[in-house]
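Teaching soon. Got one?

===
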Amino acid sequence: MRMGVKDFVERMPAPIRLRELIRTIRTARTQAEEREMIQKECAAIRSSFREEDNTYRCRNVAKLLYMHMLGYPAHFGQLECLKLIASQKFTDKRIGYLGAMLLLDERQDVHLLMTNCIKNDLNHSTQYVQGLALCTLGCMGSSEMCRDLAGEVEKLLKTSNSYLRKKAALCAVHVIRKVPELMEMFLPATKNLLNEKNHGVLHTSVVLLTEMCERSPDMLAHFRKNEKLVPQLVRILKNLIMSGYSPEHDVSGISDPFLQVRILRLLRILGRNDDDSSEAMNDILAQVATNTETSKNVGNAILYETVLTIMDIKSESGLRVLAINILGRFLLNNDKNIRYVALTSLLKTVQTDHNAVQRHRSTIVDCLKDLDVSIKRRAMELSFALVNGNNIRGMMKELLYFLDSCEPEFKADCASGIFLAAEKYAPSKRWHIDTIMRVLTTAGSYVRDDAVPNLIQLITNSVEMHAYTVQRLYKAILGDYSQQPLVQVAAWCIGEYGDLLVSGQCEEEEPIQVTEDEVLDILESVLISNMSTSVTRGYALTAIMKLSTRFSCTVNRIKKVVSIYGSSIDVELQQRAVEYNALFKKYDHMRSALLERMPVMEKVTTNGPTDMVQTNGETEPAPLETKPPPSGPQPTSQANDLLDLLGGNDITPIIPTVPTSKPASAGGELLDLLGDLNLTGAPPSAPASVPQLSQPPFLLDGLSSQPLFNDIASGIPSITAYSKNGLKIEFTFERSNTNPSVTVITIQASNSTELDMTDFVFQAAVPKTFQLQLLSPSSSIVPAFNTGTITQVIKVLNPQKQQLRMRIKLTYNHKGSAMQDLAEVNNFPPQSWQ
């Protein structure tokens, strides 16, 4: 029986060769047909492996590797690779090691079985077998294998055989990456590596030295001081530049560009933050930059590495200018990749060598017209970095032209960049306003959300430009409502300065003749336009309402328009209209004061982190501007927020008052939120007295001609209104002898956690029978560890002496998260309200 099996095996046909398998697989017309061929061949290979067929094992593993390259599973051949490695035949070892590098990795324990074989082959008498072992160890050796075999690698690194030395150097790089603590073992062997004439050994030696310098600061210092590595590298690089034609190393007329690039990278590491090393390599870098041929891509690669090295070391100023000029020449290259690399490099250096980069401004601006989108983006970013007070007009002209013609994905970033540059370097307010309006006209749908309030603030603060601006905006939106931010700004300005528009007082340009009805026609068209968003309609309706105090002949028409929108399906618009109707019917005597012109808005710096804007090599803090509340939809959003807080209709919300620098007439904003508030008891002259107050107006200050708060009586116990998540809110109370209906509550917010609470906002609401006013808080940051407190004053008017109830809303940022909480305070002491 045993002999019969042996005879059967001997009579089995020999497996097909690898070349025949490749030819057969390529004839497959479908994926299924190919899969069937592969499965059939894999079955035959498995059978051969089970029969321990040593004759064709090498052929079968080779076919298996080809199937692995096609993406089919070949893991069942791993042990066969180890058997081939253990073979004494070189052809078997070659396929075995190749299979090990492809099929094995350090995540599989099988690879440890080949450690002894590799060790034996590293000591083999044949250099090609040693080379196979070095390649395999350098490709997939695990940290355990590297520790066991590092001694053999170090021994081969000292051999005189250049074929083995270059492979041993690359294998040493892998050993260092896996086991960094073995780095010192290879230090003695590196001393003579750079004296080798063989370029292969030089190349791998530079790679090894680069790896050691990058991974160990101690090694870097050692090579700088003790080994004097820089002079050796300079000598090698100089020989490469000055050497004549060498067919063995020549690439497009340049001697061994790969070795030159490696040396330049190592010089960059050695010269970084080191004056002596940088000085030693300045001359050779200048030689490379001036003597390298730029007609071929090989030369451009060397020049690019030279530029990076010059910019990264402490080089001379003249050398840095030379490097930037090289990048400027790259911008004129026909190759898109070279132009992109040049723009990217210039963008990195513009902050340190701004004047040198400025010389190439025209070439950089020309790149904005490139067809490649990646080059366009880099050119746009670099153009904004080059903007300064001297070239702002010319650069903005080019960038506005680019904004007009660029793809949609660029418009948002380009518009934001123009806004920032115009704000920082605007030569005049008129130029600033014209530039922002041009952006809104060209790409209004792509601008940031804060563009509208920023422009409104700019216009408000430019008092002498009001007539010019409103006329320009009026003409800009005639018949075109597609750019919603532009329409919103125009509606706001027409509402504020409509009287200037109608009077034709513009001195900046030829005034236009506009009637009151024509202005209202435009705003009504905005209201009914399908392109208008809810926010835009809010702006338009508020503008129409403001014009009731600026126009004299169309008040009845305005009343009619406002009453129509009192039944609008848009809840926000409906709420606006209902409030304005109430203003017409019940508080008409207050209308002119409430709708008077907005005061000049001052820029303030927030308590949060300052935005850093980097341009022209300078870093300056850009304080965030206080955004003016647009006269249209903002009150509605505040009311909605407070209604969410209150959760019912029986309570009147109050928002915090504005800072004391704001004129008292702005207190009319509170009326918008109060709706049909009953002001019974207030004399008709109360509205007139409001603007005369020096402090922010308390809604019912007009009830008494005497000061509200003096002769303060003490003795009311304080309460803890809120204590949660480390935040504690305490109320202390005071009563006025002159007006017993008024209670002054001082809140104190403290923080017991280990981190500050930022952007802290306290809001409160009381029932309709009370009146409440929040004054400005002392800060928006609650310090950690109870090291400080925020104080804020609340004035409560309680004419009916009812028990005081209050709902509070707290919002703040803590530990990187936005926090919000609601609470109800019902434990006020009787002395505070009786």
Observations:
- The mean pLDDT is 81.
- The domain at 719-832 is CATH 2.60.40.1230 (Immunoglobulin-like).
- The two ends are 116 Å apart (CA to CA).
